[in-house]
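Batch manifest line 372
LIGAND: glutamic acid
JOB: complex structure
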Amino acid sequence: MAPPSTRTLPPIRRIVVKIGSAVLAPGGSLDQAAADRLAADIAAARARGVQVAVVSSGAVASGYSALGLKAPPKTIVRKQAAAAVGQSRLMAAWNAALLPHGLVAAQILYTAEDLEHRERFLSARRTLNELLGAGVVPVINENDTVSYEEIKLGDNDRLSALTADLADADLLLILSSVSGLYESGKAGKVIHTIQSAKTAQAHVRPDKTVVGTGGMQTKLTAAAAAASWGIPTVVAGGHEHHVIRRVLAGEVLGTLFPAARITKARARKRWLGFGARARGTITIDAGAARALTQRGASLLPSGVTGVRGSFDRGAPVQIAVEGGAVIARGVSAYSSDDVARIAGKRSSQIEGVLGHYYAEEVVHRDDLVVGE
Ligand code: GLU
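JOB STATUS: finished
ARTIFACT:
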């Protein structure tokens, strides 16, 4: 029986597309035509109402020649220097590619610390959401120029999985110079669906492209991680004609890592570090409890009655009804001192009381899991 030509993906409203250096800057200089081609697909997705964030490699690859180097740099300082030259070229290419479609690009550069610390993570996510909501195409890369070996995320496959989680994406698409994961690691037959990361491992060979950092191993690790967090992931060839459009249409292209069967809430709970010990408890009144449990609302300061424990902004906290049970867990947008001072106040009073303002809610609904 012939394999089916389409696959069932969940409804997709937000996608993260990772594009490797070997796709965008083969041979050490930017391939504008490749960016143009991919931008046309991104525009088609946007036109269908799909929000797209791009994780774009290629800073080092498109910078080293201009730096006067003949081959991709090996030392960290040269990589940092090449990235400083190449990152602006990369953005110029994306701007030029997206502009004819009426799309605006935004540059985001992360370091590992931005994604590991709760406070910075929250801020990164808010900005990403703001951009995506505004119809902008965020173009994300590691901040290679300031990330030295010990603190590096290292490869953009990993960054793309973290970004997909950060963005709460419905699909992660990793585009590389190969068409997917090959059977036995030899060019030939692409495995269409991975059932388990363990068996997939047998098909990985350690080689990688000259300009890329990752190779298939990092793609497999990233794809398996994203899938385990509930985000289906496809690894496909960036050179394929209309690859983004076709994958979104459900065509069997590249290798699919199906999402593990976990609910969004559980995936989010994992991301928010809910396994970690709560640093304190915010107590709320009955009205706020109803708003949280029945309406899926955010927790506003007006519903807060008090706070126990001492925590920083961005800490995991418990939320309990005054004198009663814990009904939710979440990430506090304000420190315990701040929460104590704005308890019972209206959101419009926050800035006046504290002298600073981060958000109108104490715990945003996206950072909240009820009934935990
Ligand atoms: N951040 C690197 C760059 O833009 C790429 C890392 C990777 O290839 O995974 O050059």
